[in-house]
């Protein structure tokens, strides 16, 4: 009885601390993020991987589908390789776009929303 209770405690601990790793590719399929919409949980680590011949950014937006940078929001540098990561905090949803000239207007936007 005592042993199974300890096991349950361990199980609960593992369940509550297992943050997921969300992978999003940048520019792999044109001016897009793949996936463009991702479900996340608080504590998850989101990693965008840049792999394109042209440079892009991951820049948090002020509004859904918007091309304006949110002051104090997450923002990567302009790059064509490497990664940018952000750990989910707050209630969301979070919207982001590519700040390279013309890319956001061409539809290069993404969103993160909390999984129910
Ligand atoms: Cu871009």
TrEMBL record:
InterPro entries: BlueCu_1, Cu_oxidase_CS, Cupredoxin, Ser-rich/MCO-related. It comes from Jimgerdemannia flammicorona. Residues 1-19 form the signal peptide. Residues 21-114 form the Blue (type 1) copper domain. One of its GO terms (molecular function) is electron transfer activity. CDD domains: Cupredoxin (cd00920). PROSITE patterns: MULTICOPPER_OXIDASE1 (PS00079). Keywords: Copper, Metal-binding, Signal. This is Cupredoxin.
């Amino acid at each position: 009885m005592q042993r199974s209770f300890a096991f349950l405690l361990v199980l609960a601990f593992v369940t509550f601390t297992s943050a997921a790793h969300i992978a999003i590719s940048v520019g792999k399929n044109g001016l897009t993020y793949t996936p463009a919409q991702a479900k996340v949980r608080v504590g998850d680590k989101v990693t965008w991987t840049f792999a394109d011949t042209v440079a892009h950014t991951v820049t948090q937006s002020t509004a859904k589908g918007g091309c304006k940078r949110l002051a104090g929001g997450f923002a990567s540098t302009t790059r064509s390789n490497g990664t940018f990561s952000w750990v989910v905090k707050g209630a969301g949803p979070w919207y982001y776009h590519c700040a390279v000239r013309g890319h956001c207007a061409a539809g290069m936007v993404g969103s993160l929303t909390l999984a129910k």
